[in-house]
Amino acid sequence: EAEERLREAIQELHQSHGRDEEAAKGGGWGCCVHQGESCAAHAAGNLCQTFLLSYGVRVGIGILLRAFKLARRRSYASLLDLKQLVSEKDLIVREEACRVGLLFGGFTGSYHALRCFLRRFRKKETPFNAILSGSVAGLAILALDDSSRRRTLSLYLLARLAQCAYNSAKSKNRFHFWGSHWRHGDALLFSVASAQIMYAFVMRPESLPKSYRDFIQKTGPVAEPVYKAVRDSCRGGHVDLIGLSAYFANKKNSNLINLTRSPSIIPCSVIHPDRASCLAHNVTVTSSTFKKTFPLYFSLTFVPFVVLRLQKFLESPAATCWRALVGAVRSTTFLSAFVTLFQVIISN
């Protein structure tokens, strides 16, 4: 019975999202798109539905990442042990999942409630109703307790707002950037942005958020003391040989390192001390980056496919899993190629 009710709820959710909202524009000020239910019920239903979907996505990603972690330890039997898979000690995402659910659920519910209120209060439906409702509903971001996360999400939404404004202006032939019509202009723009980000990561790391620096550092194969030595060398300063010696103490080929305090360039023996061959190092970088990032990308691809498109998943689970796998492999291959090409260029 629970499975049948869940299927009916998801089907009803898809039907609700598939309604034509254009009917509200020509049906009078009192005509809302949610025929058959009150405005309060419509807002509460959207709040609950969005909360459950957001909560399910966050918890599902956490569980899948935990399963990959156990599989990486070759502890396959523990995958069937719920105490190790979803225990409070090992899966600390419940509070975060609730906050994420309150964020998106609160935004959706309050947006629909305010929009219905403005539609009835002003006796007309205009873009101003949506703008004001969305602005007030944005206060749902206070559900996140971390100010840095709130700032990051706000900046992300601001970038999306700028993108929407630009796409609207471009579609109306009012404004567009030079070269935006090029076939691979997006790839060129990404290359320019990546160049600035990687320069900032190596030479001005304090200009990037700590979480972003940690992600780049963890994904790449070069240690932080080596980047510091590169910065000191490029700025004409003295390299911290004591710090490098401490880092390379347990490396296999530490005898390859022959560095002065003021080198003109950091040699490859410092960048990859475990391997004398740059080619072997680059091959290892590709495989290691793929192994490290595939669980993350697969979780981010598979869980939303299942939670947000449960009806399609129940109808064709194999096709859904295949699409999620292909998407994860493409994303992981992209990041692996990016890291490898970066290493190839700096080595040459």
TrEMBL record:
It comes from the Eukaryota. InterPro entries: Tmem135. This is Transmembrane protein 135 N-terminal domain-containing protein. It comes from Aegilops tauschii subsp. strangulata.
